[in-house]
Fold this sequence. Notes:
With 343 residues, the protein is α/β, with parallel strands linked by helices. It has helices at residues 62-72, 89-100, 110-121, 169-187, 217-220, 223-231, 260-273, 291-295, 323-340; strands at residues 19-22, 25-28, 127-130, 138-144, 147-156, 196-203, 236-242, 300-303. The protein has one domain (60-340): Zn peptidases (Aminopeptidase, 3-Layer(aba) Sandwich). The strands form 2 sheets. It has a 6-stranded mixed sheet with strand order 3-4-6-5-7-8, with helices on both faces. The N and C termini lie far apart (46 Å).
Amino acid sequence: MPDRSSTRRAVRLAAGAAVVALVLVALVLTVRSGDGDPATTRSAATTDVPATPAPTARAATGDALDAALRAARRPDRAVPRPRTRRFDADRALRLVRLQVAAGPRPAGSETLARVRRELVRRLPRAREEAVAGHPGLVNVVGRIPGRAPAVVLAAHYDTQLRPAGFVGANDSAAGTAVVLEAARALGRQSRPAGAREVRFVLFDGEELPVGGSEDEFERDGLRGSRAYAAAHRGEVGSLVLADYVANRGLRLPRELGSDPGLWRRVRAAASRVGVGSVFAGTGVGIIDDHLPFLEAGVPAVDLIDWDYPQKNTARDTLDRLSEGAMDATGETLVDWAAAERRR
């Protein structure tokens, strides 16, 4: 198998031409080789809560993070500049810095709990919601009131256990930052009469727990999204998931399983704000936090640049991001949510 199939989500891609039928969706999945580690079939019967990260996985220094932030602010000529100015990309980048400064943040860890407290402070009407069946895991939910069913903008905020030192700048500190800053931008807009509720959901436990199997990612991962979809069945009208959304040279083709109608509305928003070229084409199928909603009959879209070169490596760091890419994603999602809430 080629090396790229041993990265974190190769279980999410096509194995040759095999197509796996999901409820309401056809997804293409690739069997992951397990990072060359035969222990990928370890029992998942161990605890969800990982040990404290080793000293080699500690956070970068403030000077290094400041340098990385300057690198992320460099012009990104591969990404068009939005025409609108509702989303503050620099503020969002600083939210990424806040998260990666803490170091690795696996689900159930005290490090993630500390970061979660900072995220809760920044979301409107925020609350913590325990993940059913997984003690210690907590989803974060903010909202702008309105009628049902809700429009949902989501990301996951935990990081994977391997490799050592993984801080997940794009996976998914950037997605989390986009959700928070989009919430701030939407909260500053006047609320139209009869507008739908908008929810901002940060899922815990997207990544595999200790002992989880790469070959059973859909079963062992996605813990926060599965619990939320089950607990709020019937309350969600549409969902967009922000995953790898801020890397330099960003391209966000339609993930193969994403709802076509909702995807067209997201693309229309991208075109309105002047970044339609970023949201072009069709990509591969990915096992991600949108799946539990698709299986529940909720239109959902996964925004993910699967060609991000640093995915699933310790090089997924702040300097690999682009303020321009984050701006393109953020402006699109603010425009989409503002239009979607009027439907």
